[in-house]
Amino acid sequence: MEHPLNVLICFSKPQTGESLGALAAELIRGKNDHSEVTVLHLVGKEQWTLIDNADAYKSRLFENIVARCEENDILVRTFVKPSDAFVNDILETGKEQNCNLVLLGIGGNVLNSSLWEKFKILKNDANNSEEFVYGQFETPVAQSLESVSSLLFRNYADTGIFVDNSFEKADKLFVPILDKDDTDILPLLKRFMRRENASATVWDAIGILSSPRQPEIQKYFRYLQKKFDGRIALWDNNRKIDASFIENQELILTGIDGWNKLITTALPWKDSLPSILVIKKGHQEN
Prior knowledge:
Layout: E1 6-11, H1 14-27, E2 36-43, H2 45-48, H3 54-71, E3 75-82, H4 86-96, E4 101-107, H5 113-123, H6 130-134, H7 139-154, E5 158-164, E6 172-177, H8 186-193, E7 199-204, H9 215-227, E8 232-234, H10 243-247, E9 251-255, H11 256-263, E10 275-280
Parallel strand pairs: 1-2, 1-4, 2-3, 4-5, 6-7, 6-9, 7-8, 9-10
Antiparallel strand pairs: 5-10
Helix pairs in contact: 1-3, 4-7
């Protein structure tokens, strides 16, 4: 039986918040799913002082997100917090609301594959200090990178980094599998596929989904293919993936290890990516 999702979506830009609301609604089937959404909008304390009417601001900010959730019979809670410690407040809210999936939204103009690739190369060089690494980026980008890195490292729950490139729906998904741990995202793929219009192309770059050495993973993937007959396709590794195919997709769903490999590999299409959801499994607290 599928466990309910208690999703916390976090954002600072209203447009990214609306995209995250749409994404969460596609992951959750409705009231029979028993899943819930908590929405957290974080505002810098200095910016907060410039807001004249907090109630009106909240109403405008959450109007479309709440409407989308209610349309899909999803229980939704909304919070606005003035904050100068975004990651701390995300972790605190996640614990308070018993969330098992945290989605942090970032605009594609702030964080893209090229910036993340540069960041990973700098970060992986033991000679580079933290100060030096973040100093190689403009302030807004550096702040986003620091928040993402800290949240991925510290969060006890499953964490998704959502890079918003004008996301509207997830009818066409591309799922690259470049690391064994990337198969952890398959239950989330199942959730997306419950929508009748959804289709997915899975790129099993390492052959794990057909490997007899991984019978449980192989069995689960075959189950998904059978359940969603004709809507989950396995990419033929004898064919090259080109930019036109990638540009026609609506969401990339991948694990953090596969994502790190993807952006540091010379692929001609990695700068043509649509919206991206990168998932890292959480760790249990001691």
